[in-house]
């Protein structure tokens, strides 16, 4: 098992939810973490909060759906820290709509963040990992990359793609010392997924998780830490879903 001590990790969508919990979990393991997000205000607030606790973190603004922005993020990270050891492609968005009413614009938005974001983050991180002899990539997919959900056509498409992109990259770069995995969370309590925001729909979601509750962001972060530490695991889409897909 590899120690995460002094490893250089980038977490996209790191200002909130699962990304923030992952950034925190990495710092607790001694990693240096670049928190990246397109929301500058929350990103800077998180940077301040973690720095006050003694963590070695910095915030770099980037739009995961924009290739140049992601290329700049990787370049700036290398400028500051010299390398990239762990890339967590976590930024993601969702749009719920019946498919015959889904606009192409909304469809493209979801694909561009969730799917293209994984392409860009992987592409530029891999270039650096090839120079330093290896590294690891973890992509945040979803149970909805594994099973269908009515009204989640674009999200299903993007997360299904992420799971297979993960396998494709794992095979392509295994011999270069680069491991690539995905985590497939069940529904996780976040700013948007909670009883207050969702009302009765929330109770319906809970009922679909045999464990009887939704996940916590730190439970997904725990899985991302595992995928980063364990040197024999590559090409998997790890379900962390309270039994949702069992
Ligand atoms: P969140 O909304 O709490 O955090 C997402 C973060 O990504 C936000 O800080 C947001 O500003 C950032 N972001 C959005 N678009 C971006 C872009 N283009 N560039 C850079 N940053 C961007 O959401 P949460 O729940 O933590 O989601 C994280 C990942 O987990 C996403 O990929 C999501 O699809 C996935 N996921 C979430 C589940 C849930 O129930 N919350 C379940 C399964 C997967």
Please tag this protein with its features.
single chain; globular; binds 1,4-dihydronicotinamide adenine dinucleotide; 7 strands; alpha/beta; seven-stranded parallel beta sheet; 246 residues; Rossmann fold
Structure commentary:
The protein has 246 residues and is of the alpha/beta class. The chain has one domain (8-188, 216-239): Rossmann fold. The chain is built from eight helices and seven strands. The chain has helices at residues 17-28, 40-52, 67-81, 104-132, 153-173, 195-198, 200-207, 217-229; strands spanning 8-12, 32-37, 57-61, 86-89, 135-140, 178-185, 237-240. A seven-stranded parallel beta sheet has the order 3-2-1-4-5-6-7, sandwiched between helices. The radius of gyration is 17 Å and the shape is globular. Bound molecules: 1,4-dihydronicotinamide adenine dinucleotide (NAI). 1,4-dihydronicotinamide adenine dinucleotide (NAI) is lined by residues 12-13, 15-19, 37-39, 63-65, 90-93, 113, 140, 142, 185, 187-188, 190-193.
**Element-level helix/strand string:** EHEHEHEHEHEHHHE
Major β-sheet annotation: 7 strands, parallel
Give average pLDDT, whole number.
97
What molecules are bound to this protein?
Answer: 1,4-dihydronicotinamide adenine dinucleotide
**Ranges with pLDDT <50 over ≥5 residues?**
none
In percent, how much strand structure appears in the residues? 15-25%
SSE-based structural type: alpha/beta
**At the third CATH level, what is the topology name?**
Rossmann fold
Helical content (DSSP H or I, runs of 4+): 40-55%
Distance between the termini: 28 Å
Q: How many E-type strands?
A: 7
Oligomer: single chain
* Overall number of domains: 1
Strand order of the largest sheet: 3-2-1-4-5-6-7
Compute the CA-based radius of gyration: 17 Å
Please give the CATH architecture: 3-Layer(aba) Sandwich
Helical segment tally? 8
